[in-house]
Amino acid sequence: MKTNMKWAVLAMSIFFAACSTGYKQLKTSKEAGFSVRDYQTFNLQYTFPEGADTLAPLFAESKALATKTIASHMKDKGLVKSDKPELMVNLSVKVQEKSQTRQTDFRTDGLPRYMGQRRYSWKSEEIEIGKYQEGTLILDVIDTKNDRLVWRSGIKGVLPENTIKAEAGLTAAINDLMGKLQ
Asked: Burial of 4 by CB count in 10 Å (0-12 exposed, 13-18 middle, 19+ buried)?
């Protein structure tokens, strides 16, 4: 569990650092007739794994960057931040640890050896060669008057271990999502 919280904290800062190397944009869904121009106010909320915000420094910096980027886009669309918003923007992050595997092959993994009996065999199998984290960033827009989801989009990709491009990657991912919001 502690490992999951660690990656949740790093998710906002590391996630999409590989934006330039590729990530998968998830399907965007939009309620018929929805337009951001029909609203005047917005606010932000976040959905992160429990306890993620207690593992501070990177989490706090990444959350502040995401807040700044989303708020800037919403203001560019003519909305004002409010405590009683007409639109609620929810940013959700989920991180999963996955295993990378490969299929064994007698050409690369050696031929079967004679064991003293004629009942020897060699079987191909999958072996684990590494672990990596895959993250999903979902952006939901909720109409608070009618309490319904009016727009949703997301991005999914592998979290790189290199944190040098983290700020640019996170900004690019959010810019891509917000660019779809019309």
From this structure: middle
**How many other C-beta atoms are found inside a 10 Å radius of the C-beta of residue 112?**
10
Measured between alpha carbons, how far is residue 41 from residues 15, 44, 149 in Å? 28, 11, 16
- pTM of the full structure: 0.68
Residue 131, phi then psi, degrees to nearest 5? -125, 150
Query: 79 — phi, psi (to 5°)?
Result: -100, 155
| Mean confidence (pLDDT) of the chain | 76
Whole-number percent of the chain with pLDDT over 90: 17
The tokens describing 99, both together, are: 């295993």
Q: Residue 142 half-sphere exposure, CB side, CA atoms within 13 Å?
A: 17
Q: What is the pLDDT of residues 33-50, one digit of tens each?
A: 898 889 999 999 887 766
128, 101 contact by CB (below 8 A)? yes
3-state secondary structure of 11: helix
**Pair of tokens at residue 163:** 């944190």
* Per-residue model confidence as pLDDT tens digits over 61-74: 777 788 888 899 98
